[in-house]
Request: fold
Amino acid sequence: MKVERYIELRLLEALEYTKYSNEESWSFLIKINDKNINFTGDVKEIENDENAKEQIIETFEKAIAKTQFSIGELQIKELIQDLKKVKLFGLINECITELERIKESNPKFLKLLDRSKFNMIEIGYFLAYYHKAVDGQQDLVSQILLCFKDDEEPETSEWIQLATLTFPSNYKPDIILRSLRSSETTASSSSSLDKLGRAIAKKIGSSYEPSCLSKIRPTRPFHLMKTKQERFDEIHGVYRYNGHRVKNILLLDDIVTTSSTITEIKRAITASIGEINLRVFVLGKTFDSWRDGEGDNSEIESYFSNATAY
Reply:
């Protein structure tokens, strides 16, 4: 759905709502970069004036075009709920069709990080659940994730191929960065994450600049720590950012467990250049039995089984 049409539907819903509320002004909210932007106006000025409506839609569209706003599944679902409240069922059917189109076009492996846990970022994507070994047993996908961390082949190339296939092609950050491993103070430029960063940058036409991030010292591996507080204490204040003053940044990592590293990297960047819009893309999210249901990896396991004989 084009932004122009989305704004039009929001405006129609807002005008219809005033018929129930008897309010003299219409308003609706659009969430852009974690901020709710309120659009409002006088009902009488546009109620029977199509040219006035078109002018408002055009003005709002131009304002939104300057941001990284995109219309996805979440925006359409929220719009459907609001249209239901004012009984605009014909428009609801249009939105349902658009929702089905979005679902069909989105790669089935791409998942979203829980915003209640990762509230420091705009959006976070991941591909698979990482299950820690139990009694020496571990599922295939988790094993292959560890192979990527160790830069083993063909696993690294397979993950990069899958990641570039599924990464949203309509998102183009100003720069792409990667987190540093515990032993690193600067990016090596030859790790599996560097290969992934260059591949994604090439696909979306962005710039991969890992040297912008550094650490003042090596850090202890997180897997040796039992609590989130331990991880936070170890990593806090360690990162530095020495790069361009940009607004939209994509951060890459292999496996994310807590938000400690992401929080620290964002702290370092904002301390240097001010507020940013940060998105994150990781291959694996450590399975959380309280949040992740069964943490099913069956579809992605099937992908790897077909790609290479494991």
About this structure: The chain has a mean pLDDT of 88. The chain is about 45% helix and 20% strand.
